[in-house]
Amino acid sequence: MIPTGEWVIQIVMRPRAFEHNRRWRYLPWASYTHPMTGDQAMCALRECEAHWPAYGFRAHLIGDDKTRIDLPGQSADCTHPVGL
Fold first, then answer.
1. Higher pLDDT, 72 or 45
2. DSSP E strand boundaries for 1-84
3. Contact 35, 63 (CB under 8 A)
């Protein structure tokens, strides 16, 4: 079940090799930063995967850093999300 609330889509960025603080980063993805329902977020994730298969995305519940939905087959570590 998808939690109720407002969601946005974020791109998952791997840490850069030269960065001292090597944590995953989550950045807003253009055209998907407007709040949407959980069902709309799932559709948007599938759309992002189809259009940009080389990138990883997640649906981020606005105001809750503990909940996320990843596309199947992705194993992004979201223990340190970046704010919007």
1. 45
2. 7-13, 25-28, 56-61, 68-70
3. no
* SS3 assignment, position 24: coil
Q: How far is CA 71 from the centre of its chain?
A: 9
The Cα 72–Cα 16 span in angstroms is 24
Total-model pTM:
0.66
Does residue 83 fall inside a structural domain? no
Question: Tokens 């079940």 label which residue?
Answer: 1
pLDDT tens digits, 7-56? 999 999 888 777 677 788 888 998 888 899 999 999 999 999 999 999 99
**76 belongs to a structural domain:** no
CB atoms inside a 10 Å sphere around CB 50: 8
Number of domains in the chain: 1
**Residue 78, domain member (yes or no):** no
